[in-house]
């Protein structure tokens, strides 16, 4: 029987702060800042105003919060993660709460947000849990979602423990069925904004 993956202190030290990985680490500051800037700019482009609310599902230690606040100091950030370590250590300071992805089958902790983040999560989930929580991504996103997800075609390096070898088509079909429209670079437009998008602002499903 394979070992259960543990998102404990050792995991975050290894994959987010190991000096040997430098800026190639999951949590490399420069890489993260670029992702945050991309997501914020895209959301604000489609909303035509500054973002006010962010929901981060699978937030880990809440690493997105600081670079978000650097760009938009007044943004309301809310995070959820299954790691008891991360929530126990950072929950109070960073507004993180304990929940598994599958809990979002029923969990609706806030009104639809301007920017929904679910980064480096979906490709580690069992299909049953993925399908339980997936509808929440569309229902809780009122603007743009950053859903960083890797597929079988990508040949990923790094944390491959528990990685699900699914084709990109698997995710496109499921997210598209929810009404989320692909914008490229892991970004998806919410169903609420789709009718206002120009034809060439959204990618062709395929």
Automatic annotation (TrEMBL):
**Protein name as annotated:** Methyltransferase family protein
Q: Per its UniProt entry, which superkingdom is the organism in?
A: Bacteria
Looking at the record, the residues that make up the Methyltransferase type domain are: 55-140
* GO biological process entries: methylation
Q: Which GO terms describe its molecular function?
A: methyltransferase activity
Whether Acetylation counts among this entry's keywords is no
UniProt keywords (A-Z) are:
Methyltransferase, Transferase
């Amino acid at each position: 029987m394979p070992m259960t993956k543990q998102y404990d202190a050792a995991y975050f030290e290894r994959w987010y702060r190991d000096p040997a990985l430098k800026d190639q680490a999951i949590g490399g500051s420069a890489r993260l800042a670029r992702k945050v800037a991309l997501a914020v700019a895209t959301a604000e482009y489609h909303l035509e105003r500054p973002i006010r609310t962010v929901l981060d599902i699978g937030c880990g230690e809440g690493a997105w919060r600081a670079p978000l606040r650097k760009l938009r100091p007044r943004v309301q950030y809310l995070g959820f993660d299954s790691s008891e370590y991360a929530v126990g250590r950072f929950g109070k300071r960073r507004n993180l709460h304990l929940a598994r992805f599958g809990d979002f089958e029923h969990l609706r902790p806030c009104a639809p947000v301007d920017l929904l983040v679910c980064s480096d999560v979906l490709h580690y989930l069992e299909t049953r849990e993925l399908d339980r929580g997936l509808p929440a991504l569309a229902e809780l996103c009122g603007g743009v979602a950053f859903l960083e997800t890797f597929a079988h075609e990508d040949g990923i390096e790094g944390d491959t423990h528990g990685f699900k070898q699914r084709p990109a088509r698997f995710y496109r079909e499921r997210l598209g069925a929810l009404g989320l429209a692909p914008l490229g670079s892991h970004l998806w437009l919410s169903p609420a904004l789709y009718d206002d998008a120009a034809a060439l602002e959204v990618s062709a499903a395929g």
